[in-house]
Amino acid sequence: IYEAIGRGKHSVVYKGRKKKTITYYAIKSVEKSQKPRVLQEVRTMHALDSRNILKFYAWYETTNHLWLILEYCVGGDLMSLLRQDMRLPESSMHDFGRDLVTALH
């Protein structure tokens, strides 16, 4: 596990790497008190299969936390991108819109 790349009210997301590989993952650590919500998230993500939706790989439970192993997206999320740039070119917005519609289809 490397540095934290995101934080929520009950969770922290870290950048991680599978040992002896160059494959990176997003590793989400969630407070165990959130187990019902996390299990619903796991069921939902497990059922989704689209190149435009974050991939879910596995989850683990330890004494104090639940750990979700997710696809690591180098560019970050759309909200972070908008906060950073404040405005995106129209062509980029078209691309995001198309990808969103494709993911929901």
TrEMBL record:
Annotated keywords: ATP-binding, Kinase, Nucleotide-binding, Transferase
Keyword field contains Kinase: yes
Domain Protein kinase: 1-105
Recorded GO MF terms: ATP binding; microtubule binding; protein kinase activity
Gene3D superfamilies, sorted: Transferase(Phosphotransferase) domain 1
Protein origin, superkingdom: Eukaryota
Keyword Lipid metabolism: no
An example Gene Ontology biological process: phragmoplast assembly
PROSITE patterns: PROTEIN_KINASE_ATP (PS00107), PROTEIN_KINASE_DOM (PS50011)
Residues binding ATP: 28
Entry protein name: Serine threonine-protein kinase ulk4-like
Naturally occurring in which organism (per UniProt): Tetraselmis sp. GSL018
